[in-house]
Amino acid sequence: MKHLLYFLGIALLTFSCTEKDDPFSENNPAVDERNRLARLVNDVSIEISNSDPTINFSDLSPLDDLAGAKIIGMGEATHGTKEFFEMKHKILRYFVEEHGYRGIIMEADFGECLRANEYVVNNIGTIEELIEDMWFWTWATEEVKDMIEWMHDYNIDKPDHEKIYYLGSDNQTQAYNIKLIEERISQFPDEIKNSLGEYLSNLEMNIYDVDDDLILEGLLNVDTLIQELQVYKTEIEALSSDKEYEILERLAIVTKQAFNARYQREQDDLYNYRDLYMAENSEWWANHFGQDEKFLAWAHNAHVCAGVIHEMYGGSQGAHLRSNLGEDYKVIGFSTALGAINAWSYDVSLVVERPLPTLLQFTSLNDIFHENNSDNFIWMLNSNVRDNPVFEWFDEERDFMLVGAVHPDARPNYYRKANIVREFDAMIHFDVSTPTDLIQ
Prior knowledge:
This protein is of the alpha/beta class. It folds into two domains: 29-101 and 294-433, EreA/ChaN-like  fold (3-Layer(aba) Sandwich); 175-271, no CATH class. It has 18 helices and eleven strands. Strands 1, 2, 3, 4, 5, 6, 7, 8 and 11 form a nine-stranded mixed β-sheet that branches. A two-stranded antiparallel ribbon has the order 9-10. The protein is globular.
């Protein structure tokens, strides 16, 4: 079926070419090379039956090799593919139930997810309220809703030390952080509440709609807020707990991250502060519940990949986590070839269903994966691949399809160079992408 779709897509090209120009001619060495590479992957990959998060967990047994890692990153080649979202829910279930992982850290707002975590852990609020409050449209889907509902139901009647958590690492806005600090200090004595509130009130702004002077003023205020929290640390811990104090302080720190990342961007600083801070926040969450606890991290391939850190530009969240944690950080990439996704379209200023970018023939990893005998598969990129010269073609930077929140209407080239052997520990491929089920 997948080959039928593929060849229909190039039919006009094929029929308009002479035999000499036909890219699929037997005389074209690129075809032989592509087929050779596809056979290599086919021989070592393992078929996945489907992405249904409720069945066929035996499909995931190859991932057991990653289970010792403190954090396992789970990527996605697009933010709008149903199969990716369902599969990550499936992996979460498997690693919670079979390997003792304590939850998931999302590429989503730190404070927003902390509020949602109250529903997951303590049954406070409703699923409808937390979906409605999501800052990113990408997670307001039936697939994420189903995952959160499963986490909520899993925690019912569990003791605290067995409960799982829904957390966030992102730092693009301070709004939810400030609201949560205000709520959490509202029961404190007036001296503490008023002292902290003085600085909180000066942080309530749209950081993307104010000038640099206000951002700098916000940075000064949040620095003072952090200092004031530290002054009252003993009292706050006595009134609540040491863990509650840690969360309050972290909410203020993530607020500072949001102000600083925004300010540095306006100063044309090319360093990737967002991913640096996401890595810091993910590692902080993993340690907050105990040094031996393990978590999964959900983000785009571009965020979780374990690339290199550049002195001027920084690196991905995964690059920082690999640098800090070494082999205690593992990462699963996701790939697709054909079909459709949900993405923001500037043409209509809406999130809409759109086709994937054209499959880049012969040179792209996606095209090679498309030729696999299995539509859906797992390829473990372990030492058997890294140390085997047979796979040396893959141990170079190759074209790899990545689509973010915005559809290629706005930018025609959605391939980037990736060395998947060095950036990922496993690759999961779903040949045909279908759009996520958006919650309007």
